[in-house]
Amino acid sequence: MIQVTIHRGTHTIGGSCIEIRSGDSRIILDFGMPLMEKDGGEINEEKLLHPSIENGILPNVEGLYKDQQPTIDAVIISHAHIDHYGLLNYLNPSIPVYLSRGSHALIKVGRIFYPEKNKISFDNYRIFEHWKPFEIGPFKIFSYLMDHSGYDASAFLIETENKEIFYSGDFRGHGRKSKVLDRLVRNPVQDVDCLLMEGTTLGGDHSVGFDSEEDVEKGLCRIFSEQKDVSFIMASGSNVDRIVSINKAAVDSKKTLVLDLYTYYILDQLKNITSSLTPHRRDNIRVFYIKTHAQSMVDSLGKDSLYKYTDRKIGIDEIVNRRDQMVLKLPVSAMYRISDALLKDRPLDKAKFIFSMWPGYLDKNDSFHKFCNKYKIELIKIHTSGHAYLKDLERLVAALKPKTLIPVHTLSGDDFSKHFENVIRIDDGVPFDL
Ligand SMILES: [Zn+2]
Ligand SMILES: [Zn+2]
Fold first, then answer.
1. How much distance in Å is there from the Cα of 394 to the middle of ligand 2?
2. CA of 84 to the centre of ligand 1 (A)
3. 199 vs 169, 252, 271, CA distance in Å?
4. 343-374 per-position pLDDT tens digit
5. Residue 150 CA to ligand 2 centre (angstroms)
6. Do 372 and 395 share a structural domain?
7. What is the CATH number of the domain that holds 331?
8. 274 close to 151: Cβ distance less than 8 angstroms
């Protein structure tokens, strides 16, 4: 008999951890840091610094942790978002971690640049290839490359005891890799016994008026083309799709894109995996050296690492001199420094501040509005979700025709049955027999 236990994620977004058991063999899909309390409320930061089974941050999985006899066969990570891999520091080191090449590269970058509490280390890992099955004990596992705001994300098909379980991971169908979802639904595994599917966007207001990454690119291009002064843009450096959209818009509007050292380093590392990825020789990208980023690189990689990008380096003087050409994707602290220099030349009332992230962060963190207010800069939201909207959730379900559908990574699991058949609701930590 197969048992599926969602240790976290039946009623919350983030901190996913799913156990699949066949006989004495057990694998864990994702081992993420929670983003919210069990009731959806704000999480206590102090608890995150000292995770334990008692305080509810570590899921209660026997045989997973350093102080336990290891009885889990493997942990398989769907993608390099902290809510899917952020607890790996607590994993018993004899348990191997399986992940994609891109996920591994991004976690390694985090080890250089993230603050100490967010650095995740593990030595016992295996890289899997997409679309090439691999085996762990009685489980045959197949990774599908998925379209998501996390680079090189996977969904997994797990076969064991003649049954099939499909775990969607986090995905969407409106990003820069929408073709991979098209391919999956065109030629699907059918009648899977169990589909564990994310439902992040259900119930919430995840739309900001841009339906797809393509629309985001067009929206950005329109603003950059008409800009009379600098465009500041706030986006996640690890959201590679978005950085590519920003760059394409900058190229089409003949602007110079200035990236901070961290963001440029990510692109440089991922180019080893996807050679067609930005940057290219003699392109429009320049690098602004942020002191803390530079220090992180020196500490981890040595001083010479800083010289690698000096031909792309740009300073404040050049930004001021060519201000109407500039698209600046930098931390807010650098935006202040640059704005002070620009202000000496002329006011910034024609500049734009584009917020290209989940708009909820604007309420959680007032530093963006503060910055705009100080320099009288207009704030514009241009974003699309990293997660599938209902239309693409429906496409996946229609293709896989699951015999049971279990909601995961959602605050609106109860809404699944409004849209889908065969929905089963379970609670965190309660095994489901398949
Ligand atoms: Zn997630
Ligand atoms: Zn994600």
1. 19
2. 6
3. 10, 34, 31
4. 999 999 999 999 999 988 998 899 999 999 99
5. 5
6. no
7. 3.40.50.10710
8. no
